[in-house]
UniProtKB/TrEMBL annotation:
It catalyses: L-histidinol phosphate + 2-oxoglutarate = 3-(imidazol-4-yl)-2-oxopropyl phosphate + L-glutamate. Homodimer. One of its GO terms (molecular function) is pyridoxal phosphate binding. The keyword Nucleotide-binding does not apply. HAMAP family: HisC_aminotrans_2 (MF_01023). The keyword tRNA processing does not apply. The modification N6-(pyridoxal phosphate)lysine is found at K231. Residues 33-358 form the Aminotransferase class I/classII large domain. Its EC number is 2.6.1.9. The lineage of its organism: Bacteria, Bacillati, Actinomycetota, Actinomycetes, Pseudonocardiales. GO terms for biological process: antibiotic biosynthetic process; L-histidine biosynthetic process. Belongs to the class-II pyridoxal-phosphate-dependent aminotransferase family. Histidinol-phosphate aminotransferase subfamily. This is Histidinol-phosphate aminotransferase. Its cofactor is pyridoxal 5'-phosphate.
Amino acid sequence: MDKLDAVTLDALPLREDLRGRSPYGAPQLDVPVRLNTNENPYPPPDALVEDVTEAVREVAAGLHRYPDRDAVELRRDLAAYLSVSTGVPLTERQLWAANGSNEVLQQILQAFGGPGRSALGFEPSYSMHPIISAGTRTEWVPAPRRDDFTLDTEAAARVVAERAPDVVFLTSPNNPTGGSIPTAELEAVLRVAPGIVVVDEAYAEFSSQPSAVTLLERYPAKLIVSRTMSKAFAFAGGRLGYLAATPAIVDALQLVRLPYHLSLLTQAAARAALRHADATLASVAKLAAERDRVADALLGLGGTPVPSDANFILFGRFADAHAAWQSFVDQGVLIRDVGIPGHLRVTIGTPEENDAFLGVAKDVFAKEV
Ligand code: PMP
């Protein structure tokens, strides 16, 4: 046995509740067409790359000092972006940022979840919600969606009232199924929730529904809207997520965040990227049109695409979804098996990538019948 493997995971004094668990991990395979992690397929525009490079060069001279612990200027820029895109005036006191929205969600559960507390979500949904709950020792309470993956608002309000979770997750548009939750339906849950309601809007820029930010004024003690620059903003590698909430909630998160969690480089790069929001977000309309084209084409091939308001499509039906996933990989197209029987999820890519996907889909569906 290799010396480095002399100590196994089983032999470590690991927390009992983490034993036997698997880390989050979409396979990262080196194939020609990668449509599996819901990124924007278009690389950042040249002007953005130049600006980020220049911004990082400028701050590099100050790398011997810790960064602004509260990332105030970045939060101001995020507030300006979100105010313009939602029509709701926001200040930096209502914004908080971290390394990806996953870290934002973790901080929310550190502050409002934890041992003896619970978080509820409507499945299937984003698999990190239960994983972050486990990591923070928050009890996870799964609640169902309808068979067509939409949210049954009355049933949702009932289960939230009954189970009284400390935190509710509502994902809109929902990953991996793609549908958005209309404002009236969000409100039905917000009205009865006893604790915090997190509306995870990672894909909001692709959606035709208004943002839950419009509800902040009405539910200031409950509502948190989380967002990310990883998707529409084409900044997944930059790791920047953020949220909007009432200032007291931002104060609460400062109790659990690690000091200086956002590096000088991250803050500078994200601010530079935000200056190019208009150019980056120009891809959103193109991707939405491609999404609709791919959905129609899947229908034409005998597939069953679930209506999507995001930059991905859940589709079926396969007798054996995992075998179908493998057929896609074997033909050079990496999509995602999200564990929903009979279904796979494809991220919308460039028109060429989508054509490559559809070419393989034709072959895979032909073998199904
Ligand atoms: N929320 C949802 C619904 C997501 O799909 C993702 C990414 N897959 C995230 C949050 C986290 O993204 P990030 O940490 O890159 O901001």
